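sorry for the late reply, my laptop died twice this morning and i had to redo everyting from scratch. anyway the thing you sent over, i finally got around to it. pasting the sequence first so we're on the same page, its 626 residues, then the predicted structure underneath. double check i copied it right bc i was rushing
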Amino acid sequence: MYRIIARRSNGARQSFTRVGDEWLSDADVAGRISVFMSGGALSSFTYSRGDGTVETYDRDGLLTSITDLGGHRQVLSNAYADGIKRLEKVTDPEGRSLVFTYKDRMVASVTLPTGRAIRYGYADGDLVSVSYPEAPAGESVRRYHYNELDQTTGVSQPHTLTGITDESGQRYASWGYDGYRRGVLSVHGDYATGTIDRTLLAFNDDGTTTVTDSLGKVRHYGFDVKHRVARLASLDELCLGCSNTARAKTYDGNGMVQSSVDFAGNETTFSHNARLLEVQRVEAANDATGLRRTVQTDWHSSLRVPVERRILDAANVLVSKSTWTYNARGQALAATQVDPATGETRTTTSTYCEADDVAAARCPLLGLLTQVDGPRLDVTDTTSYVYYPSSDAGCAAGSGSCLYRKGDLWKVVNAAGHISEVLAYDGAGRPTSVKDPNGIVTEIAYHPRGWPAIVRFDSASGAGARAISLDYWPTGLVRQVTQPDGSSISYSYDVAHRLTAISDSQGNSITFILDNAGNRVAEETRDVNGELKRALSRIYNQFGQLATEADAGANPTDFSYDANGNIASTTDALGRKNRQQYDPLNRLVLSLQDVGGLNVEVRTHYNAMDQVTRVTDPKGLSTTYS
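ok and here's the structure:
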């Protein structure tokens, strides 16, 4: 065996090739493969994620366990059936399980720890329905659509997902594709008539992509391909709410970000080590006014966790230092903040359940957090955690209710000695009964899909119980909340699951009108008689920024923005203008009120740690902070 392909949950395929005794992948892959042999044959192998989680696989490539940094291990049980080996059960460290059944070699159902089941339907090998449990014994069904010809340029494209119908029976989402099976349209609602979040993509011959959003804004995306992965390199227009806020990015040979320039021209540079871990970041790297900031990080030699982080100002003077120590599993034992100017330190320590503690029955499972001791030395500032040492007797099969399992959190004791307790859990590990330090017991009942349904508050004596109930639409959106006095608030949504109206049990209501991007362009508040009591209207620009807001009397307030999307000025209905300025680190440094009139100015100064050091008021008087 000379090659292993790791298929990840995000769709990525990571290829590992054997070179001598090592398994090597592309330079941009942080994961690592280890292969174990027995009698000259493959017995198992592990995949170590970038976050320290270790996945173990059997010789057939089936996942058998997942172990996190704390040592908590999920076990996956596989067995042969219908001539193939497949997953039958997943069990967490506390013993709760998911059980899988199959039909025609496809997953037919997953039985949850609560005993409820999610069922799956297929057609031509495609998942076409997911049936969720409802109360008391019904189901709600989400449906998936494929290869609808009007969404695939009239050409049959089997297995191409073209839409979702939600549990209410409404078309929730639609997608369109070109002849190369590339997604070119996304919209909430109907493909042909839907306008909500309607987004168009055009793939250009030069490798760029043109995206037109639901407000009609056109943006051009450029890419840099490293190790067969296209990485965003350029964006010509600001995109609020997008994961990328940079105008331009460059990458090193390993595919890691090397520099990033925002829409105001501020540059941040990055350096990474051979393990793809960031070792230095320079913010406002191109600034010449003394605002440049450098963040340096040293990493553990074998774990992907930091051991020291330093912040330096523009003169390369150390202004802040943080250090960490860890146990062999990678759990933080001590976190220390150091003041370089005085040498003073503040340390928070954490204690965990170790093998000796388990053997001595001081705690039930390896790696559980048992105590956090804060940095104060003059008073006790510890928080302790106690776990159930064994499972409730009712957890034995067929012997009754299972109130808790070994390793479930039982008590939390704060620095004052106040104790909060979790008295019971449901089958899925959600708390159903909690007692606060005053002896007040809160009981929680859940919808079959796991949402809180009833929250009941009882006094310590058990008298005077009060309850809040929550009702849901089939999609899981909150439909109504009923208070202990019987009053209620109801919620309505559109096909994109956006909130459009709120009403109470007396008849008062608020209605929201949304644009295609979900911005609230109008609000109306009405009383029990339907009389309009309050109105607001808003205008948004193509960037999705609020441009004008007006009250019921049509009195407007106008807004403008800087290149990075920060509010630069506001002008009220009387023509009074306020202005704000931000520094290269995107911090508010100037607030000017009544521009052109009184010019009331407030300036704010910061240190390299973003702490306010001085505020100068309109009279020129300064308040300093240290």
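The two ends are 62 Å apart (CA to CA).
thats about all i looked at so far, will dig more tmrw
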